[in-house]
TrEMBL record:
GO terms for molecular function: acrosin binding. The keyword Plastid does not apply. This is ZP domain-containing protein. Pfam families: Zona_pellucida. The keyword Electron transport does not apply. Keywords: Disulfide bond. GO terms for cellular component: extracellular matrix. Residues 1-130 form the ZP domain. GO terms for biological process: binding of sperm to zona pellucida; egg coat formation; positive regulation of acrosome reaction. It comes from the Eukaryota. Gene3D superfamilies: Zona pellucida, ZP-C domain.
Amino acid sequence: MALLNEDLTGLAKSSLFPLGSFIPIWAAVDQKDHQPLLLLLEECVAATTPELQSASLVYPIITNKGCLADGKTGNSRFLPRYHPSAILLYLQSFKFALGEEVYIHCKLVAWDPEVFDIEKKACHYIKETGEWELLDDPSQSDLCKCCDSSCKPRLKRGVDSEPQGLVQNSVLGPLTIVENSETRIPSEFVKYPTVEQGW
C-alpha cells in the first residue's frame, strides 16, 4: 500500500492532508507466477496506533466485506482500475484524530478476477443515484445491496473448505489530517481524477 500524489503519477511527497481533501491510497499484489489475481480491500479502518489493539480508537472506512462505508458519509470512492491486481481508494479526509498521527489498517484479499460474491467485492456508494455500485462490474451491483445490512453468506455444507484467497493485513502511515478553513466539498462539486497509467 502507498499514498499517491494528487494527480496519481507518483508517491505523495507529504503525509499532511487538510480536512475534506482527498487521500489517494494505492494497493497492489505482485502477480509473480500466479494466475491473474483481483485485489480487494475487505476491511479498512483508521486508527491512532500502528498496531490495532482491542482498546484502539478506530474510524471505519471499508466494512462488511468490501463496502466503502465512508463513501456514504463523505465523498470517498474507488477509482476505475488500470489493472485487476491493483486498487485505488480515493479517500476523503475525515474528522478523526485531527492533528494526530493516523494509520490506515486494511485487510487485503487477492482473488479470482472472474468470481464476485457478497464476500468478495469492492462496492462504493454513488451519491447521484443513492445506490451502491460494484466497482468491477456495475451490472452485478446487486451484490452490494447487503452493504446497508450484513454481507454474510447463507450457511452451506463444506463452507470451511472453500478457498479464501490470499489474505494479508497491511498498514499505511502515519499520516495527519489537519483542520482548515474550508468545509467539506459538496459531492456535486467533487472532480474525481482519471487513472491513465499503472504503477
